[in-house]
Specification:
mainly alpha; membrane
């Protein structure tokens, strides 16, 4: 990788690290993490001195060095390495990203985000560390340690109870008796059947950062427009495939060859003597029809996603990524397939390519494609102009659908990682309490108001499917 790209990547990485409140806290207590940050700053200092690198006309080593000192409130020595290859610096950059993602559970995309513009003042402004931040993350750490310890103790106690239960059950089985009056009692299965429901499985839990009130209506509009675009495209392609240009007349061939021949068979190559002289504007074949059938799938996919009754608030206030992505991909292919029909000149060029393939150049050296095409336009001009207009409108509708799809993807709610982390912690506490025979109610602020919760009814198909699965499990 080029030194300038490496320099930009490290600068963006350092900014993203400092921007993250949790990582700023870790800088104050994790010496290894701090030393690796210092190493990254030393590397960009090396690139500045040895390769005169900068990012947005600024050399950033001094700014980040000041930021680290401000966050840790400790003096720190920064120095340029003596000699270092660009490959080694990039390797250390990649290794540092892996270290942070694994050690502190930070997403890689969050570390390498590159679409944010920032200044030296911005870096110093976000380099904040105070007692309130430290107390916040110290409390989170203590709660996590306590929850993990409780789970470990509970598992240890559960193993002990299971051993006692197995010993008792063996004695009962040997005596041919069962005090529970059934076919045996599996303590572990019964134990875990009462486990609390994780918030992610609860319809009241909304794991995203925002609820856009206009999203349900936007989904309907997008789906309706996508379906309309697909139907318009189908009509356009059907007309293109059904429109045939018959150029068998002598006036066509005479204009194409300046009057030298009276029949196409006189000038066709030997392998093309049986070539039909009536061609459809769009080829008709089983493969072509099947390809356009697949182009219909995105509108079906996104239509079902938008118009079906939402099963939860996650469905209501967010549109699925894959329906939109599939629509964008397939619509892009459709635009490419329609480029050949945007105007009569493109269609003329296509005919010229066909004639160049099938006509023997030795027998028709003098060609006049323009004169040939003038005859075609005199006979089929209005039809061709109508079809090119429809092709242009199809491309416009497809392009607009792609743009709207991209905007929706950009505005789609993102996962609230802090909320999910808190939900995981609450679930761990509830599980630990249950294992110790205690009761713990998860923080109700995790859940939405009951008035907003969507309680979807079980459909006949889902009921049949669930019953089938239960019967299948019993047979096993």
């Amino acid at each position: 990788m080029e030194p300038n790209k490496i320099y930009e990547s490290i600068v963006e990485l350092l900014y993203n690290v400092i921007k993250n409140e949790k990582l700023r806290y870790e800088l104050t207590k994790d010496a290894d993490f701090k030393n690796q940050i210092v190493n990254q700053i030393n590397n960009i200092l090396f690139l500045e001195k040895e390769n005169a690198q900068n990012y947005n006309n600024v050399q950033w080593a001094t700014t980040f060095a000041k930021a680290i000192v401000k966050i840790t409130n400790e003096k720190q020595r920064f120095e340029k390495p003596e000699q270092k290859k660009s490959e080694d610096i990039y390797a250390e950059y990649s290794s540092f990203i892996s270290y942070v993602t694994k050690t502190f559970e930070i997403g890689r995309n969050e570390l390498v985000e590159s679409k944010i513009k920032f200044t030296e003042q911005d870096v110093m402004f976000i380099s904040i560390m105070n007692d309130e931040i430290k107390a916040k993350y110290k409390l989170i750490e203590d709660e996590k340690i306590a929850a993990e310890k409780a789970v470990a103790d509970a598992e240890k106690k559960s193993k002990s109870n299971n051993q006692n239960n197995n010993y008792s059950n063996n004695n009962f089985n040997q005596a041919g008796q069962n005090p529970f009056g059934g076919n045996g009692f599996n303590a572990q299965d019964n134990y875990f059947s009462n486990m609390p429901v994780h918030p992610m499985q609860d319809p009241r839990f909304y794991p995203y950062n925002i609820k856009r009130k206009w999203m349900p209506i936007a989904k309907y509009i997008i789906a309706a427009f996508t379906i309309f675009t697909t139907l318009f495209l189908i009509v356009t392609m059907a007309m293109l495939m059904s429109t045939k240009i018959d150029f068998s007349g002598s006036n066509y061939v005479s204009d194409y060859t300046n009057g030298a021949f009276l029949s196409w068979q006189d000038i066709f190559k030997s392998d093309f003597k049986d070539t039909p002289t009536a061609l459809a504007l769009a080829g008709v074949s089983f493969q072509t029809i099947m390809s356009y059938f697949f182009f219909i799938l995105p509108s079906i996919y996104i239509g079902v996603s938008a118009f079906r009754k939402p099963r939860s608030m996650r469905d209501k206030y967010r549109i699925g990524l894959w329906p939109v992505i599939f629509t964008i991909i397939f619509f892009t292919f459709e635009i490419v397939s329609l480029i050949s029909y945007v105007d009569s000149n493109h269609i003329k060029t296509s005919f010229g390519k066909i004639l160049k393939i099938i006509v023997d150049p030795e027998k028709a050296k003098e060609t006049n494609l323009n004169a040939f095409w003038n005859v075609v336009m005199n006979n089929y001009g209005s039809r061709i102009n109508t079809l090119t207009l429809m092709a242009d409108l199809s491309i416009a509708f497809l392009s607009l659908s792609i743009v709207v799809g991209g905007v929706i993807l950009a505005l789609n709610p993102r996962l609230d990682r802090n909320k999910i982390a808190f939900a995981n912690m609450e679930f761990q506490k509830a599980a630990a309490a249950m294992m110790q025979g205690q009761n713990y109610t998860m923080d109700q602020s995790l859940y939405e108001n009951d008035d907003e919760v969507i309680n979807s009814k079980e459909t006949k198909f889902s009921k049949w499917w669930n019953d089938f699965i239960k019967k299948f499990k019993k047979k096993k």
